[in-house]
């Protein structure tokens, strides 16, 4: 079941967001439109725009601006994907060729810029300064998180705290912005707004932890990207950080060497170490704690089917296989 199918009341709004996104990809430059449609239609869950809709509804919103707001969040997310795939030199995402693999790096970066600017055009139309403040700040923090990840790349001395700082910046911040702006739009109380902000942050952390865990767990068919991509790029994610902490001296040295040089020459030995040391369970436990914190934050919201769906999404974030 897709996340938006958890709540029948949200489905018409979710479809309206999809229509809005497709209707706002227009450009006088055909390649912009072509790449924009390719990446937007490539099979994502639309989880972040769904969070906008659910958060606004959970706070009793009755208007229509949650649809363009959800589209803004998806435009920003899609722009980050285009840029990430160039930075990481990725050739597979969601089981399809990345835009940079198909059209090259330069068009991918520039269309990412187009989607960012389109998001801000729509934001101006909504005209809410609190929302502009949250989203403009989020895009800045996301960029910092990506640079921080780049600095940590091929650094086997990256600590768990430094890793968490990266995933909060590059992933959790946009989840947080999605849920908080939904609350702002609905005119939520300060307590409700803070509750949804914290929910989004913890959910984003859980989501990224599971993503990083699956890099050492799933097949390419299941997760839509190549197994060991993070290792190939020399990214010291939590499974590797914990495996180095729990492994033998020889195992630690092997992982350190793999992080420093990148590549997949020693993928199977590293997979064996990650599993033997319990690093997968350690990462899953961290994700489960983050999901539990997300659900705890929701206690400040009034009872509703939308609040229930937000709770279900936290469970799905940990239990998913792709």
Automatic annotation (TrEMBL):
Q: What is this protein called?
A: Octaprenyl diphosphate synthase
Co-factor requirement:
Mg(2+)
Keywords, sorted A to Z: Magnesium, Metal-binding, Transferase
Q: Which Gene3D superfamilies does this entry report, sorted A to Z?
A: Farnesyl Diphosphate Synthase
**Gene encoding this chain?**
ispB
Picking any one GO molecular function of the record gives: all-trans-octaprenyl-diphosphate synthase activity
Q: Which residues form a coiled coil?
A: none
EC number(s) on record? 2.5.1.90
Which Pfam families does the record associate with it?
A: polyprenyl_synt
The similarity comment for this entry is:
Belongs to the FPP/GGPP synthase family.
The superkingdom of the source organism is Bacteria
């Amino acid at each position: 079941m897709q996340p938006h199918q958890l709540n029948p009341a949200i489905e018409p709004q979710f479809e309206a967001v999809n229509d809005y996104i497709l209707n706002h990809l227009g450009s006088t430059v055909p390649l912009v439109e072509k790449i924009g449609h390719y990446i937007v239609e490539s099979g994502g869950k639309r989880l972040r725009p769904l969070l906008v809709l659910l958060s606004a509804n959970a706070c009793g919103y009755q208007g229509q601006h949650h649809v363009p707001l959800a589209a803004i969040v998806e435009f920003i997310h899609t722009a980050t994907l285009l840029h990430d795939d160039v930075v990481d030199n990725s050739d597979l995402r969601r089981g399809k060729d990345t835009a940079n693999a198909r059209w090259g790096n330069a068009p991918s970066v520039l269309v990412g810029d187009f989607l960012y600017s389109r998001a801000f055009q729509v934001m101006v139309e909504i005209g809410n300064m609190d929302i502009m403040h949250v989203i403009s700040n989020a895009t800045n923090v996301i960029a910092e998180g990506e640079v921080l990840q780049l600095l940590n790349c091929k650094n086997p001395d990256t600590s768990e705290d430094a890793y968490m700082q990266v995933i909060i910046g590059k992933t959790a911040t946009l989840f947080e912005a999605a849920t908080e702006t939904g609350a702002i739009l609905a005119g939520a109380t300060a307590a409700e707004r803070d509750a949804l902000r914290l929910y989004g942050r913890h959910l984003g952390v859980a989501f990224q932890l599971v993503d990083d865990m699956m890099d050492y767990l799933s097949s390419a068919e299941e997760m839509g990207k190549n197994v060991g991509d993070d290792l190939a790029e020399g990214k010291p994610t939590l499974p590797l950080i914990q495996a180095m902490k729990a492994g033998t001296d020889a195992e630690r040295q092997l992982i350190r060497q793999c992080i420093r040089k990148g590549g997949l020459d020693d993928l199977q030995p590293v997979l064996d170490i990650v599993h033997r040391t319990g690093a997968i369970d350690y990462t899953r436990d961290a994700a489960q704690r983050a999901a539990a914190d997300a659900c705890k934050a929701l206690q400040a919201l009034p009872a509703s089917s939308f609040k229930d769906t937000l709770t279900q999404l936290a469970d799905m974030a940990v239990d998913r296989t792709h």
